[in-house]
User: What shape does this take?
Amino acid sequence: MNPPGSSGVLEHKADELVSTPIRAPSVYSDDPQERIQARRLRIAARVEARRREALGEYLDGKKESEEDHGRSYKQKEESRLKLAKLLLYGTELVTNIRVAIDVREIHRRVEEEEIKRQRIEKLENEVKTSQDKFDEITAKWKEGRQKRIPQELWDMLITQQLHCAGLIEDKNKLISELQQELKIKDDQYVKDLKKQSDDITLLLERMEEQVKSMVKAFYQELLHIEKAFELERQELLTSNKKKWEWALQAHSTKELEYLVNRMKRVQEYEQQLNKQRIWDCEEYITIKIKLEQDVQVLEQQLQQMKATYQLNQEKLEYNFQVLKKRDEESTVIKSQQKRKINRLHDKLNNLRSKYAKQVKQFQEENQALTTDYKRLVMQFKEIQKSLRHFALIDDEKFREIWLMNEEEAKGLISKAFDVDRIIHTQHLGLPWTAPDFWFLNNVGPISQQMKRSATQIVEEVLRQTEEEGEEEAASKPESYLDLPKQISAKTTKKILMLLCDESGFLIESKLLSLLLPLEKTESYLLRLDAIFSALGIESEGDLYKLVNFFLKYQAHHGSSSQVSLAPGSEAAEQTSLEGGEGGEQEEKAAPASSSLIHPNDVLKVLEAFVMGLRKPRDFQASLKVGMGVRDDSEDSEYWEALTTVIPAAKQNLWDTLYTALEKYHLVLTQRAKLLVENESLEQQNAELQSLLQQYLHSKINSELQVPPTQVLRVPSK
Amino acid sequence: MQDSRPPLTPPMPSQSTSTGPPPSVAAHTPATGLLPTKPVFPSFRRMRRIIAEDTEWSLAIVPLLMELCIQNIIRNFQKNPILKQLCPEDQQKVLSHLPPDLPLAVTANLIDDEGYWRRCCTQRWPVCHVAWHGNSWKRLFFERHLQGLLSHFIPGTTDPSTILDLLPLCKDYVRSLRVDQLLPPVHLLPTPRTAGDQSDSGSEGEAEESSADHYPLGPLVAGLSQLEELDLVYGVKDCGMNFEWKLFLFTYHDCHSLAATIKACHTLKIFRLTRSRVDDERARILIRSLLDHPAIEELDLSHNLIGDRGARGAAKLLSHSRLRVLNLANNRVRAPGAQALAHALVHNANLLSLNLRLNCIEDEGGQALAHALLSNTCLTTLHLGGNELSEPTAMLLSQVLTVNTTLTSINLSCNSIGPDGGKQLLEGVVDNKTLLEFDLRLSDVTQESEYLIGQALHANREAARQRALNPSHFVLPVTASGPGKSVA
Assistant: This one.
């Protein structure tokens, strides 16, 4: 800080000065004393400001004291602010001179202006007055010209002169005044120059002073800061030292305490140890005695125990041996068992695998068999089909063969008969009569009309209607030749369907459930089978009877019910028309459509039919012939009969005849041979003759010395 | 800062000994001094044959031929300057031993070494501010040399070739020309003046005007290709009691030639023409030549006789150039001139500083300027000291202060603002966060408000210091440099 003693005095002054209003411009004007006062005032203000600043600083410092480097930082900041203030005020102090001069200059200007204005006014006035005077004088000159009297003129001249002198004097006065002013100005200038030099010296002084003070202040502040740092450092040092000492002291006291405590404890422990030792010794002795006694007792026991032990040992050893052996045995057995178990396990595994394999195999087989079975069933069905087909074909063939053989036989027979007739008529000369036998008239195989079962018929009917359809109805009649005349397959089917629908109660419930998944025709078939068995219909005839019964019943009741069943009759007509295409004429005549039979009447018809059927049933033994087995007993008879067409007597006759004829034939053949021989000899003769002729007629003969011709005698022909 | 300058520059001898190269005499001593020292400590010397700290020490007893050559070069440098051919170490040696009074014709374009020029400067002038000359001693030397020549040039008597001969030597180094006096031509018959003759002086001045022209700067300035600053005073310094009006005559011829000179100099950045009795006409001539100048940044026409017309010209210049500083202190600008300047200021975005100290713009002009400042966002410094401003201007300025965020310094000293105006200004300052300087001395403001304003400014300064990371809080008032110059 700055010197505190002087500042205290100055503060009072400053306070006084602050309270009084400042006479600012006048202070700076002229008087150096006043200027000094102003300077003092400035200094006071500065000090005042510094004091305030310090106050402010104090507040700042409070804040900053919380920081770590409180003191030094504070001091630095303080110094900085202080120096800034100092610098600011210093520059202000220096520039104050300039400001003061400025102000003075302004005032001077104002004054100058005023004076100038006054001067100009004065000059103008002067000009005016002098002009007036001059005008007066010039006017008087005119007057003077008119003056004739010299005295007057003289007077006037004198007055003129006086006036002129006055005017000149005025002017001179003015000039001298102005010159006076100029002189004053010159003086002023000199003064100003002096003042300027004074000011400059003052300025320099102030500057120097300022510089000095600044240097001093800076130095001081530096010292302060250093001091602050030093102080801080010292404080820090002392505090640290104190801390350190305190800590050391605390440490030493604690150490001492610990030592004392330790000593105490050591003593205590020693005492305790001694006590403990004594006590231990006593205890030890007592225990020792006791234990020795115990030892003796125990030794005795030990001996006993040893004895028993020996005994036990032996026993146990024996047992041990036994057990060992047993153990060995058991181990052997165990191993055997183990082996066995292993073996069995192996077997089990093998069997399992085998089993699995077999299961698989069987499954496969099963599958294969099922497929086979299916295939076979199919095949069987096909075979059946083909069988039927072949049966028919066989029949046909059989018939054809029969016919062929028969024809052959008959041809042979007729030939035989012809031969017989020729023999009789030509050779024997006997009249011949054709024998007559039953079998000769027979044509085709000997057939037996067989009785078929009702179901078969039904089946056939159903199948045919189904398979062939209506288009083949035309070709049907032949196959239905065996059916009763009036009944067509269609009507039969319709009646049967009706029957099947209406008489469901005759079928067993079990069967019904089984029938559900089957085909329509099959289900019908089975149902009808069941119904027929219930009704007792067995043969074809029974079925036809039933159908006829139905038709008859209808014929009876049809007329009565026709009116009521008009729509029904229409339908009947339609169906009859359809049926008419493939059916017989009789069917058309009779309104035989089954649809005409009301379903409600079916039961009545059935009842009546069953009642009627029961009577003949008793004596009608059912001759059940195996189907497809033909009775061929008569065939052999027939064919044997055919062989005996020519009787044995006749055959004997033929034999004798034959021998006689053979003899005759032999003679004839010999004759024929001879004839042929004869003919060939003749031919040879002719050929030889021609050859001879040829040789005789050739040229060589002529050339020869001895012609053969001469030798030979030519046979003349 | 001016007051601290003298102590800042240390005295010459201390400089040369501390950092500068040792004088030539000192250089010889170690070589010669070896001889006596050797026998004194023979054992020590024998033990340590080479001493690392002593660069001059050598085993050689006889000076090296190289040394001798260098000495010879130094001795004959004036006649036969050999420098560039030497290796750098030898160059250094030569430069450190060259006498500083060699003719400039030899050294000017040959030697660039700062040490040598420093020696030259310190020998010639006791006080050297190398910072004013771009921290270049060579520049300082040439600038001051040229300034000295110019300020002692007497037209008609001194040979102009003394200056023009120097031109080729210094044209690359002179960047600023500060001439604080230009002498008028001296008449052969200096009539001894008496008190009675003084009345004639005025008429004499008019008659002799044509013959009172100063040295024409045209050819010189045209030769200086690097010139950036031109500071002229057409007047005589320290005339004292020999005062005559004709010593301070800035003739029209001078004016025209100067105008042509500054117009031709395209590198000029700062132009100052102070204390030269420049009136409106002359100011207009000069300003006309500066219109649309490519480089001019600062114009200083303080301490002249410029009136409203000149101010109007300056206002025109504001809108036709990139002027950053305008100084019209101590002129005769009145309200109309200030209004013109204010009008130019509204749309200006270059001007940073405006100085209208010691004019008479009065409230009308002050209000106009304040209105302009409401929309201007560039001006940082405004000096309106001694302008007979009063309360109305203060009121407006307080409004400006609440709005403006660029102004950092305002000077309203020596006005009659009055206590109420002070209060209003205080309100304005309290709302402002950028203002750092506000001079209200001798303006009838109550001490209380002045103090409170000071507090507010202090807070602003602290805030600015916090903003700028470097803690240089010594923000010097711009006005501080003004008086120092004007007084000196």
Remarks:
- The interface with chain A takes residues 2-4, 6-7, 195, 198-199, 240-241, 243, 357-358, 360, 385-386, 388, 413-414, 439, 441-442, 444, 447, 451, 454, 461, 471, 473-474, 476-477, 479-480, 482-483, 486-488 of chain B (CB under 8 Å).
- The first helix of chain B runs from residue 5 to 8.
- Residues 130 and 136 of chain B are 6 Å apart (CA to CA).
- The radius of gyration of chain B is 29 Å.
